[in-house]
Amino acid sequence: RRAVALILLLCVSGMRAEPARYSVPEEAERGSFVANIAKDLGLTGEELLARQARVVPEGEKQYLQLNQHTGDLVVREQMDREELCGQSEPCLVRFEVLLESPLQSFRAEVRLTDINDHAPVFLNKEIVLKISESTRPGTRFLLESAHDPDVGNNSLQHYSISSDEYFLVYTRRRSDGRRYAELVLDRALDREQKAEVDFSITAVDGGTPPRSGTALIRVVVLDINDNIPVFTRSLYKVSVMENGSQDTVVVVVSASDLDSGTNGEIVYSIVQNSEENFETFKINPETGQIRLKKPLDYEETKTYEIDVQASDGGGLSTHCKVEVQVKDVNDNAPEVIITSLTSTLSEAAPPNTVVALFNVRDRDSGDNGRTTCELTGEQPFRITLLAADAYALVTSETLDREQVEEYNVTVRARDEGSPTLSVSKTLSVRLLDVNDNAPTFTQAIYTMVVSENEPAGRSLGHLSATDPDAGENARVRYALVPPPTGTLAAASFVSVDAESGTVRSLRPLDYEKVPAFEVTVRAADGGSPPLSAQAVLRVVVRDENDTAPVLLPPPPDSSAAGELVPRWAPSGYLVAKVVAVDADAGQNAWLSYELAKATEPGLFRVGLHSGEVRTARAVTERDAARQRLIVLVRDRGQPPRSATATLAVALVDDFSDAFHQLVHDPASGEQPQVAEEEMLTTYLIASLCCVSSLFLLSVLVLTANTLCKARIRAELSPPSPSCYADGAFASDGVGGTGTLSPAYRYEMCLTSGSGRSEFRFLRPALP
């Protein structure tokens, strides 16, 4: 079935040059069936609906409509054949059936069959004829024609007169098919018997039932006049340009009469055989000069046939015909008739998308009526010829609303006449936005600065991203991109306002912990699906002087250290070096050293930036052996922060003297720090030997004491011991400040006879 339908469709497509023909009576009611288009095209109703079949009229008015579900072509609005086509036959209503996907056009025409809805009408209800009594029987008289706008059998078919003894009527036919009446004298008139003859004439059409119109003929019998006027020609043929102005001379007719006097005076008149002739032409009754009452229009009427009557003063008359051929002039510019227009178009529409359908019509003929069509300017559109004078405006390339939001497409149609006439019509096509552009940050990397310890909620700056789309597709919202797992949660330090892009701090920041951090910011639009872009936000923490200098080593909270200086030390001798660090940055971490206090202020000096403590002069014998120095370390912050270091300096002659001073110094509560590494090593070895010796001696004494007590308990039975508590020996120093660990405890049970000598054995031999 699909193959058969395809073959039929190809056949129909191939015969687009021969339009399909249908017929319908004029003034058919709305909804009247005309034809089944789907059947003629070999398509189903579903295919018509899928391909968006529609009827495109040739003119501006839509008389027919197509049911896309059934394929029936029905009447949309009543059509009056006489109004649409006048006397022209056949009367055709042309249209096109347009299919999309792929784009196809099929031409068709509906013929309006005439119905007998008009009766013949005489322009004058009374016709007066003046006939001489000497007129011979058989003489013919041309009568005014009745007008019937119907055509074919429904038009005027014949004339008849009421019963009369003098006249007969004959129905004649003109070259254009219209019928007219000739009155024939059947019996000689006698004015003395009857001066006036009255009868009626009836014009009848051929409709079913027939319609008719009637007029009264009044014949006035004149006295004898034996010569009738004679035209120089029975037929005048003349051509007139349609652009002739009013009162332009068309032709001059001439007739002569051999009679004299009033019987020889000729008066010219136009026999009103049509209302159109009456409105278009006029004749000078004396000269026979025919002029235009109004300009001619070739597109309305191409030929006129005028009946001219010449009458003498005696009542005799004769007739001639004047045929006026109207010559076409290129006086009509082409017309662009829009039959379908899509005023809004998606920017994602592919090439060859139909934007508009239109026809170009020129009412002129020949070369004056041949037209061409083109677009003005460079635009992404082109014109496709569907059929003769039927065009489609389609897209020629992809569209971009961000470059051009609206197009004013100008269609120009021109004819081939001389001079050439043209007309332009502008179609406005507005593009609808599609989310085809991602937001764009103004910077790839944003750097913002925040002061250390700044309160939360402070604005650090603004991010800005733009989207060239429109509406929701251009609405940009900002958000932080979550960091990868295991990285610094920098997103907890700042927030970004989704609408404005304002960056704010979430908590105070510590430069010493986080000097700077980076987060990724995403800008997403409101399209579907949304498009996004990313930028890097780098936040630099500006250091504040919130950290004091820190001394290394000893720490600031330790007791004074000890330094040794020989008495022979010259000026500039390096005593010690104070080392300090500051966790701040910049000038907040620039440290300076100064001597705040000294036992001998002039003996020592401190390097401003190095922290080196040196002798300011040579050491003399008069200088005190013990020197105490306080070194102040200060940074350059605002306000500045500082720390102090206390140095104990011993002026010694040799190392043994130095050892004696350090051990017996009541102000020194812990092992002093020596300047020389070798001296410190010696002290440590000596101390270790002493402690080890005391430990071994204590172990031997404890072992011997245990054995002794066991032997005594065995000899004394039962003993009455006196036990002394652990606290009784505190005054003797066993559990006091000796070098043994307080974890050692000696439990002794002595008899009343024990001597003091045993206890002395247990006391350690301390210097």
UniProtKB/TrEMBL annotation:
Q: Name one GO cellular component term.
A: plasma membrane
Record's function text: Potential calcium-dependent cell-adhesion protein. May be involved in the establishment and maintenance of specific neuronal connections in the brain.
InterPro entries given in the database record: Cadherin-like_dom, Cadherin-like_sf, Cadherin_C, Cadherin_CS, Cadherin_N, Protocadherin/Cadherin-CA
Cited SUPFAM superfamilies: Cadherin-like
Cellular location of this protein?
Membrane
Principal location listed in the UniProt entry = membrane
Q: Where is the Cadherin domain?
A: 16-122, 123-231, 232-336, 337-441, 442-551, 565-668
Top-rank taxon of the source lineage equals Eukaryota
Annotated transmembrane regions = 680-703
Q: Give the bilayer topology.
A: Single-pass membrane protein
Which range is the signal sequence, renumbered to this chain? 1-17
Q: Does the keyword Calcium apply?
A: yes
Provide the GO MF annotations for this entry. calcium ion binding
Q: Which UniProt keywords apply?
A: Calcium, Cell adhesion, Glycoprotein, Membrane, Repeat, Signal, Transmembrane, Transmembrane helix
Q: What is this protein called?
A: PCDBD protein
Is Metal-binding one of the keywords? no
Q: Could you give a single Gene Ontology term from the biological process aspect? A: homophilic cell adhesion via plasma membrane adhesion molecules
Q: Name one Pfam family in it.
A: Cadherin_C_2
